[in-house]
Input
Amino acid sequence: MIARADGSVLYNFAVAIDDLDAGITHVVRGEDHLSNTPKQVLVLEAARAVGIDSGGAGQAQLPVYAHLPLLHGPDGKKLSKRHGAASVGELREAGYLPEAVRNYLALLGWGTGDDQTVLSTTELIERFTLERVSSNPARFDEVKLRWLNGVHMRALSVPELTARLEAFTGRSGLEEAVRISQEKIHTLADFWPLAGFIFDGPIDDPRARERWLGKDGRSALKDVRGALAEATSFDEAGVGETLEAVVSARGAKPGQVYQPLRVAISGTTVSPGIFESVALLGREETVGRIDRALAAG
Output
């Protein structure tokens, strides 16, 4: 039987003829399709018997079939949405790089033999063989995918990463912010929550203000404000020397000075490096944000 009562073609006939028409030589899919393969082979053998050719390339040839174990989640159970499984579109929207996703998917149940984990697409093409695919179910772990994506992002040049982030965010003029953020982000989606304050001003994080802009924090911030206003140099090195001098003069731990400043300029406790962030904002903008933070009480 190759068609339903309404005339629509059944899956096993349609997919076999489609593979034939496209000249498919290898079919690699999940083991849940194992029972479909004999049916499709019968369709292809019938096509050969009546002389149907393969995409115009001669008599139909049977593809090589390989059936892979299904993916499992970190808990060892069949992968599902509750494990964070996502479509390609959802991974793209979450800020994952195509080359990192290809790298990770290739490593699910396959290995290079030398334990190399980070591989370019070119290397994957050169080194992949079906013989090294494991017969055991692989486990999809988004934590590892996120780590691997971060490795690929840090391997990009700043201009290339900037181009991708500008396309992802729809914003321009990001290169300097990308430069000081690259080591701290794992996906494209991480960038704006980390560095968006540089462009849009501080966010509103009441918990950060409560923790770091109390009496002691405001005292440290006043000292920082005075020192930065008079700093002879406002590049990263000059800002670093100025802030380190404030820490030393107060006999404080660095965080007791840097965190109130970070909250004043970004609104929260997470940002790129504090020296780099202040230098990028510039003296006027930094001092202005400090003043507004102090005035807010």
